[in-house]
Amino acid sequence: MRAEFEQLIADRRAELETRLAAVEERLSSIRLARSGATDDDEHDPEGSTLSTEWSRAEGQRTDVGRELADLDAASERVGAGTYGVCAACGNPIPVERLRLLPAARLCVPCASRP
Ligand SMILES: [Zn+2]
Fold first, then answer.
1. Biggest CA pair distance of the chain
2. What separation in Å is there between the alpha carbon of 83 and the centre of ligand 1?
């Protein structure tokens, strides 16, 4: 079980790192395009599209970074032997859920509780 969990976490991490690299690349190409554009963002339709894209890419970078941090915490739980145990009720989290969300800390009933 433990080896499977470690594999799940490693696979997910690899996927996120690929996504992060793509987002970083997107951000640097927007940065380049912006430096070539005029300073007058508000009245330049292209400039405002770039701003929108920039915010979206930054949002994605934040999301991916957060999930990577969650995966680090999940790795620590594997090491501590508490991985796959709901942090709220202490019941085991079904492995199907962990396959979908390797960083999950809560079982489905606890996660859907408001
Ligand atoms: Zn629970």
1. 58
2. 13
- Tell me how far the alpha carbon of residue 111 lies from the centroid of ligand 1, in angstroms: 7
- Delimit the domains of the chain by residue range: 2-83
Cα 110 to ligand 1 centroid, rounded to whole Å: 4
pLDDT level of residue 1 (50, 70, 90 thresholds): confident
Angle of the 45-80 helix axis to the 2-36 helix axis, nearest 10:
160
Q: What is the pLDDT of residues 27-44, one digit of tens each?
A: 999 999 888 766 555 556
Write the Ramachandran bin of 64: left for phi over 0, alpha for psi from -120 to 50, otherwise beta. Answer: alpha
The alpha carbon of 99 and the centre of ligand 1 are apart by a number of angstroms equal to: 17
**Angstrom distance (rounded) from CA 66 to CA 82:** 20
Tell how far the Cα of 55 is from the centroid of ligand 1, in angstroms: 35
Please, what is the Cα angle at 9 between 18 and 78, to 5 degrees? 150
Of the chain, the end-to-end C-alpha distance in Å amounts to 30
